Structure formats: C-alpha cells, structure tokens
Amino acid sequence: MKRNVWITGSLVFGFVLAAFAFSPDGEPSATGEKELKALVERLGDGDYAIRKKAEEDLLALGRKAVPALEQAKREHPDA
Q: How many CB atoms lie within 10 A of CB 42?
C-alpha cells in the first residue's frame, strides 16, 4: 500500500514539475522548509483526502515545492 502511495507521490511530482516548467511565477512564499517536508510526507498518508489536500497545497506553492519533492524522491525508500 505504501509503495502505491509513493508511486502516486512520484506522479504528483511529475505534474508539479510539468506545471511549473511553464509557469512564469517562481516567487518564494512564506512556507518554510518544515512545512514543505510535512506536505511531501502527507503524500504518503493512508487517507486519500489528506494525500489530495497535500497535492493541492504543493501545486499551489509552485516552484518552491520542487526541491522538497526532489529530495523526497531521492531519499525515500518507497519512491
């Protein structure tokens, strides 16, 4: 189950990268590193609603979310 969740997270990562490759705004937001890591971790939650909310929040953050997603992809054993 966790592996499927991280596969979904990897797909979200791809969508984020694709969406922001064409996005002109890459301005930093007030979201800190801890909050970003928490959002990325929620992509692996067992509850669909929590995963979906994390996905939406990460997409809303734009390019600021990309480093945290890349780090999770490199470091998480289920990625």
A: 18
Number of H helices, E strands in the chain: 4, 0
pTM: 0.61
pLDDT tens track for 38-62: 999 999 999 999 999 999 999 999 9
CA 10 vs. chain centroid, Å, equals 8
Q: Structure tokens of 20?
A: 């922001």
Asked if 66 contacts 14 with a C-beta cutoff of 8 angstroms, the reply is: no
Tell me, what DSSP letter sits at residue 14? H
Rg of the chain over Cα atoms, rounded to whole angstroms, equals: 12
